[in-house]
Prior knowledge:
The chain is elongated. It has helices at residues 2-11, 19-49, 80-110. It folds into 2 domains: 2-49; 80-111. By secondary structure, the protein is an all-alpha fold. Helix 1 (2-11) runs antiparallel to helix 2.
Amino acid sequence: MSHWVVNQVMHSPMGGASRTKVKDILVAIDAEIACLEQAKALLSASAAVVAKRKPGRPAKVVPVVAPKDQKTRKLRKMSAAGRELIRQAQIKRMAALEETPKEKKKAAEAA
């Protein structure tokens, strides 16, 4: 718009002294000012919404989960006999690991 205003003043027959030309120029300037003020208002409103980020990694966002309507599955309990079998197997594995270094020592001493 500003180029149009300059051209109107420079190329008018009376050098821009005509009142109608001056009024037209003022109307054009007012329209441009109104447009710029609208743009400024939009930019300042959007700048207020955007928050400045802090340095570093952003915090983890935990999504909000709606409660489930289904029943939660119960944990299974192991019987005492089952636990004892697992314990005995673990003892056997550990004993096998401990015997290996001793057997190597005996074999080295015998040789």
